[in-house]
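Much of what follows relies on a compact textual record of a protein's fold. A record is reproduced here so that you can trace the correspondence yourselves:
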Amino acid sequence: MQLWEPVSIGDLNLENRLVMLATHMSHCEEDGMVTNRLINFYRERAKHKPGLIIVGGCYTEHLGMSTPTMIGISKDEHVEGLTKLVDTIHSYNVPAAAQLYHAGRYAHSIVLGQQAVSASEDKCRLTRENPRSLTVEEIQQTVENFGESAKRAKRAGFDAVEILGSAGYLINQFLAQATNKRSDEYGGTFEARSRFPIEIVDTVRKAVGPTFPVLYRMSGEDFVPNGLTLDDNRSFAPRLVEHSIDAINVTGGWHETRVPQITMDVPRGGYAYLAEGIAEVVDVPVIACNRINSVSVAERILSRGKIQLIGMSRGLIADPELPTKSQADQQHLTRPCIGCNQGCLDHVFLIAPVTCALNPMAGYEEERKLGPLGVGNIAVVGGGAAGMESSRVLAMRGFTVTLFDEQNHLGGLLRLAAKVPGRGEFAAYVIYMERELKRLAVKLRLNERASAETLSDGEFDCVLIASGTVAGAPPVDGVEMSHVTSAYDAITLSLNDLGKVAVVVGGALGCYVALYLASRSDSVHIYEADEALGVDLSRTTRWVILKALKEKGIHTHTNAMVTEIDTTSMSVLIDGVKNDVDAKTVVLATRPQPQDRLLKQLENTSLRVEVVGSIRKPMNLLEIIHSSFALANSLEI
C-alpha cells in the first residue's frame, strides 16, 4: 500500500504517509499547560505509528486563544509540558510537529477577557461579536510572536512546525476580502493582503533555521462570499514555497461556511480535489484531508498520483490502532469515524473535552481501563447501539454473552437512520460492530423475541435490557386511522406513493423522516409546535439538516400544533389560528417511548436485571455508547 511507504518533508523522513492532523482536544489546563490527559491521548496514537503527528493548535499569544483549555506555546513556561509531550511521541519513533495558531476574530471576548482582534472590524458570524482591527504595530508584534513560538517548538524538541493559515482564523482573515477591509499596506490588493502571512512565514523560517521543516495549512477554498477560491490559492501556494515552506496541508472552508466540510453528508474524501489542485502548482509534498476516514479512501486518493500525504484526525480518534490494523491486514476491524461530530467538533464548540461517540476510551485513556476479568453468562436484550456496545465490552472482559434481538439483524434504529439521505455512515458502525461481536464470539440469537420465560430458565446470571424505544403517539384524535403511521414504520416499510405527507413534530426524528420521504411523495410538510425545528440535533449537524430540508423543498411550519387528524386533512393551530390542511399520509415523529414490556415482566422474577441505553431516558448516540461502556465495564457478578 502506498500509504505505508516512506516520504520526506524537507529533511524530515517519515516512515509512512499518514499524518495525524492537529486536533483541538480541550485537554490542557486553563493557562495552556500540557496535562497528563493530553499526553496519554497522544501516547495511544503514537503507539500505532502514523508517519507524523501534528499537535495543536498551539496559540502563539493570549489574543490567539479561542478556548481556555487549548495548548499554549506563547510563553517559556509552556515549554516544559510540551517537551514531555514530544518525548512521549518520540518514544515510539514518531516525529511531531507543533501547529502555530491564532484565532483572530474566532476568539470569544468572554474567553480573552477583552475584545478579539482581526484584520478589520466586521462582525464574526461564528462568535456574533465585533473584533477590533489590529494596528500596524500590533501586526508586527503578532508576526514576531509566531517566530518566538516557533523557537519554543524547536526548543521543546518538535521536529517541525505548521503555520495555521486555514479555517477562517487570523491569517485567513487577512487574506480574504470578506474580512480584510484595510486601506494600509496590509489591505487592498491580493498582494497586499498576502503580506501578513508571508511575513509570518519569513519570521518563522528565520526563527527555526534553514533546514527545520515548516508546513503551512491552507483552505483550498474558503467557501464564503468574497473569500479565496482555489484559483486564488493556486497562485498563492507557489509564493509560500518560494519563501521556504516545505509542505502544504490543504483543508476545506472556514468554520462559518454554509458548505458542509466534515459532517456525515460530505462524501468520503470529497475535498481531495483541493489538495490535488494545489499539488499541480508546487513541488513540495501536499497533504490531503477532510472526511478521509479509512485506509481505502486514502489509497484511492494516493493512487491518482497527485498528492503525497494523507491527513487524518477523527479516524485516529475513533480508532488509534488504524495503522496497526491496516498493516496487519485487519483493516476490516477498524472502528470507523462516521462524521457524527458528537464527541469531537460539538465538544469543541461547547468548550468541553474532546472524545468520540463511538470510542469511549478516546480522551479517557488513563481513566477508562478495561474492567477486570469476568466469569458468568450474561444475556443482552436489544441489538441497537446500547446492546452492541454492552455485548462488546462484556465479551472483552471474558463473560459469555448472548445477544437477543427480535429483528433478523443488528443495529436497531441505526439501520433506520442510515437510510436517511446523508446519514449512511451509521451503517458503517453497524457493520463494524457485527464483525467485532463475531470476533469476540458473542452468541447472536436474532429473529427471537426474548421472554421472561426464556431468560429465567437458569442459563443466565444477569440480564441487560437494552431494548431502546418504540414509536410514540401524540394525544390527538385520529392517530389510529389507516393513513397515519409512525416515523419508524415510514422508513422501515419503504412506503411509496404517499401523496402529500404531513410529519407531526419536527425534532431530529421528524427532520430525518421528512428527508427520507422527500423523494417518495408529492410534497412533505413538517408541523412543529415549538418555535424551531431540530432543537435536539447537535450544533454542528443541525444547520446541515435544516439546509437539506430547504434544498429538498420540504415545507416547514413552526408554532404549529396539530389538534386533530381526519381522513384527508388535519386541524393545526398555527400561531394560535386554526387551519385545516390536506394530508394523504400522516407520519408521527413524536418522542419515542421506552420499550419496557420485558423489563416489567422481569420484575416478577429473581433474575438480576440491569438497564442500559435509551430505555432509561432520551439519549444521543454518544450518551448511549459511553453509558453502555460504563455499565458493562463495571458490572460484577
Notes: The first strand starts at residue 7 and ends at 9.
